[in-house]
Amino acid sequence: MSKHTLVVDDSHVIRRITSSLLCAFDFEPSEADSPAAALTACATRMPALVILDWLMPANDKHAMDSLECLQSLRRLPGGNEPVVLYCMTEHDPKEFDRAIRAGADDVIIKPYDRDMLHRKLIATGLL
User: Pick from 3, 21, 37, 98: most CB atoms within 10 A?
Assistant: First the structure.
């Protein structure tokens, strides 16, 4: 049985590539292009896995960035259930720590490939 997954990234290309990789592991990916869209999707159908891009800054006074999205996700009913992989482009231990404190289960560094994603899915208990 496939597991529902939400890929959150402002890049359409990254969302499509990640979704394709997840399908290879029998996950059922859906996509969101912003933190706000991700929260709406999670409130509608809580996924087993969220892959959340770290660099999606708030673009107006009402929007939220990725860390705020993660914290808000964890406050939703059932929001502690999904595994959250926080997707970063640089290896910065301070940012890793911020992500974990905000509620991420693990961090994955871009660019990642099928093998790296596979290892993260195993490490988080999803495979």
Answer: 21
